[in-house]
Amino acid sequence: MAAEEATPFENETAARRERQIVAFSLGTETYGVDIASVREIIPIQKIVSVPRAPVFVEGIINLRGRVIPVLDLRKHFGFEQKKGDPNQRIVLVEAGTGSIGVIVDAVSSVLRIPEDSVEPPATVIVGPEVEYIQGIAKVDDGLIVLLDLTKIISEVERRTLKDADLRSAVVQ
Amino acid sequence: MAQLNKSPEYAQDLKLLLAEVTELLAATEENLVELEKAPSDTSLIQEVFRVMHTIKGGAATLGLQDAVDVSHSMEALLDEVRSGGRVLTRPLMDSLFSVVDYLEEWSSALSAKREPPSCRKLLGRIRALKDEGDGETKDEVLISKIDSAIQQGKNVFCLKVRFGTDVPLLSVRCFQILTVIEESVEVIGSVPSLEQIESDQVKDVLEIYFSADDNGEEARGIAQKSQDVKEATVARYRARARKNEAAHSKESSEAPVVKRSDLGKTVRVDVGLLDFLMNMVGELVIDRTRLSQIAAQLMRDGETSGTGNEVSSLASHLQRTSTELQEGIMEARLLPLKSIFSKFPRMMRDLSQRCGKEILFDMTGESTELDRTVLEAIDDPLIHILRNAVDHGVEMPEERAAKGKPPKGRVTLSAWHEENQVLVRVEDDGAGIDGEKLKKAAIRRGIVTEEAAAKMTEKEAVEMIFLPGFSTTEVATEVSGRGVGMDVVRVNLEKVNGQVKVKTKVDSGTQVTMRLPLTLAIMRALLVKCGESVFAIPTSSVEEVVSMGGISVGSVQGKRVMNFRGRVVPVVSLEGALRESMWSTSGHKYALLTRTNDQSLALCVDDLIGEEEIVVKEMGRLLSRLKGIAGATILAQGDPAIILDVNRVI
After folding, report:
1. How far from the centroid of its chain's Cα atoms is residue A39's Cα?
2. Residues B35 and B114 grouped into a single domain
């Protein structure tokens, strides 16, 4: 009896086993982030630079009265700078301690990706990037690198705060 | 129990203290957990130390001896850790946790008006720790060596060698066995250690820890055959169970229940909540402005069907309500200084009695109102400063008589408004601070070199009291003198954009003045232009703005200076300082003479935009710790701008 009931249930979860991602391009690659971690996608707007901030911090923006730091993923990944492209967007991510914006070249679409098309990162990539790469998804027109933006941000935060601590220790 | 039935003020103070202790302990518990992971993190040790110090001070004020004793003994141990004289061992960590547990229990007992638990057992344990001192420390080193050997997959054994009674030259025997064993297996360490054996600290049992590939039988055989050995046994050594982990998981599931039932009766408004409400109002204000614009647009477009009118009247109603809401929340953040001043007379009385000094204590300006955050930030600093005034400032009656001063010392605490700031001053007519003594202490501690000290002015020497860990009192008293104090004062004040200055004269007294912003959420700021950027600088830290036109910039010892009304002031280009680029003279129209901690500095800017009321916004954790950057704001036309902390720009 248990076996009879289990079958339709399994089918249902198999159908549901997919991720919804926001796909965006950066350089020549297509990346994806889990839709649940994205708060909002806004067009590029005036970014005010912050002195003494880490290099990949592009600056701050005014989002309806809130001040939000914006990171440049191109700088973070070591790509060339790109400015003034109207397709550029800021992806706002909830990062535990507040929202943080991430500049991307263009947001292409929201995709549903079946879970079984996602390869774990370790089989494809090695190196420190593996930390914030959730997997590689195979889609019709190529590969999508699934990123964990929250991890990137917390890594950046950790490093920045550590630097600040070192600096203040030197001052003392 | 008698101490629980005192005046209503006492009850009020006790309640405040217990609420503070609860807050501090919660943070400490987290810090301890972190510390256990990173035992070499001195900032964490410092933090825990400060908490113990604060609790000790608070409890001493109210005469709560148990908590004073516990926190004092812990503070003493931590001080040794801080100065490198003691390793943060696991037993020490355990007792730190027990201290937190005890204080939690103690505070919830007092809140419930129950008799607090006895601290005698805990004190005994801490004392034992302190007494064991070195031996215990080395044990821990050995254990960590063993642990790491086990982690490397080695088989670790403990060989117990028991000697007969009255063995002559026992230490030589121990040494021999140790040497022989070392030849056949890899020895990790021994109890007593080699150093202890060499200094003749031996017992009739010698434990040797070693790693070997066999079952350790070979080493046992060697030991058994040695002279004077009564018995030799060997056993496999297994990694120590981490008992505090289990204890913690238990605590975390039980502790919150206790807290909820005991604290349910008090409502302390979290400053974070007020901040949040303030931010929400800020967003509301922006929506309000948008709505007004839409209404105006509708009217212009000739929308006459009533919708335009409706939107427009809605917008103006929203305008009124949101303005009132904004004012209400701002007001909720203001508190009279009385709320922290009221406990001081009692504290001063107790302190002066304990020190055997006679002191007249006066307070003025208690009704002056300050932002909650600022108020909370100055509470601890004020306690420190007042304690210093009693302990280090006012002299003993005989000494005062010898100096021809009235036998009763005088300490005054006053507060008043000045422009849009509040000044709080503690003044005593005591011994003052002797710059020369400070220099000597600083040299002894290796804080400055003798040459540097010789070059110091009296004022610069006095400034050294703000250095971390600086204290000239050799013996720590229950009241003060551990070098926690003035550095905490400065750090706390800088967090809320305040400043502290010390004026002192030997034998006539000391004056400590705190300059504080009225509110943190909203401040007046000068907007300046540097290159492409606009920066906001709190008006409170700018003394004067001068046009660069009539000023000549010279150079002294390679540093840019300008002559400003007979004063020689260092000149720095603000943009140059922030972007770490070279000085450029072009384009600077104005110089801001800043009022930093006792030091003048002229910051050159390209242009002045004006003065504005700005709302201070958080930039998030990522950008929270940049040197010289206090936060951000949103300017009237909608662009964000950085708020600078001129105290720390250079």
Report:
1. 12
2. yes
Determine, for residues B629 and A46 on separate chains, whether the beta-carbon distance falls below 8 Å: no
Number of A to B CB contacts under 8 A, please give it. Answer: 94
Average pLDDT, chain B: 78
Q: Tell me how far the alpha carbon of residue B88 is from its chain's centroid.
A: 20
Chain B hits for A164, Cβ within 8 Å = 625-627
Give the helix/strand (H/E) hosting B371: strand B369-371
Distance in angstroms (rounded) separating the CA atoms of residues B422 and B418: 6
Block residue for tokens 């950046």: A156
- Report the number of distinct structural domains present in chain B: 5
SS3 at position B554: strand
Q: Is the pLDDT of residue A38 over 80?
A: yes
Task: State the DSSP string of B130-143.
Answer: HHHHHHHHHHHHHH
Cβ atoms within 10 Å, residue B393 = 26
**What whole-number distance in Å separates Cα of residue A69 and Cα of residue A92?**
10
Q: How confident is the model at residue B474 (pLDDT cuts 50, 70, 90)?
A: very low
Q: Which of B468, B620, B639 has the CB atom closest to A97's CB atom?
A: B620
pLDDT, one tens digit per residue, over B86-127 is 777 777 887 888 888 888 888 888 888 888 888 888 888 877
Q: Are residues B508 and B374 in the same domain?
A: yes
Residue of A49, A62, A161 for testing the chain B interface, max B β-carbons within 10 Å: A62
* Confidence check: pLDDT of A16 > 60: no
Partnered with residue B551 across adjacent β-strands are none
DSSP state of B391: I
Domain residues for B628? Answer: 522-644
Q: pLDDT band at B265, cuts 50/70/90? A: very low
Is residue B241 included in any domain, yes or no? no
Q: Which residue has the tokens 């335009």?
A: B308
The residue ranking higher by pLDDT, A111 or B142, is A111
pLDDT tens profile B608-640: 988 877 777 778 777 877 888 888 888 877 789
Residue of B nearest to A54 (CA): B623
Measured between beta carbons, the chain B residues lying within 8 angstroms of A52 are: 578, 626-629
- Full 3-state SS string of B1-50: CHHHCCCHHHHHHHHHHHHHHHHHHHHHHHHHHHHHHCCCCHHHHHHHHH
Distance from B213 to chain A by nearest Cα, in Å? 36
The answer to whether the beta carbons of residues B424 and B414 sit under 8 Å apart is yes
Gap between the Cα atoms of B498 and B487, Å rounded: 14
pLDDT of residue B480: 45
Alpha-helix residue ranges (DSSP H) falling in A2-143: 2-16, 73-77
CATH number at residue A35: 2.40.50.180
Number of independent structural domains in chain A: 1
Rounded distance, CA A168 to CA B498, Å? Answer: 19
The domain in which residue A111 lies consists of: 18-160
Distance (Å, whole) CA B105 – CA B25:
11
Q: In what order do the strands lie in the sheet with B421-428?
A: B359-364, B409-418, B421-428, B509-517, B499-505
Per-residue confidence (pLDDT) for residue B469, from 0 to 100: 65
Tell me the backbone φ, ψ of residue B369, rounded to 5 degrees: -100, 145
Structure tokens at B1: 């129990």
A156 contacts B621? CB cut-off 8 A: no
B588 included as an active-site residue:
no
Cis amide bond preceding A114, omega within 30: no
Assess if residue B344 is contained within a domain: no
For B520-548, what is each residue's pLDDT tens digit? Answer: 666 778 999 988 889 999 887 888 888 88
Interface membership of B623 toward A (CB under 8 Å): yes
Between chains, do B642 and A51 touch, taking CB under 8 Å as contact? Answer: yes
Q: What angle do CA B68, B69, B70 make, to 5 degrees?
A: 95
pTM, whole model, 2 decimals? 0.48
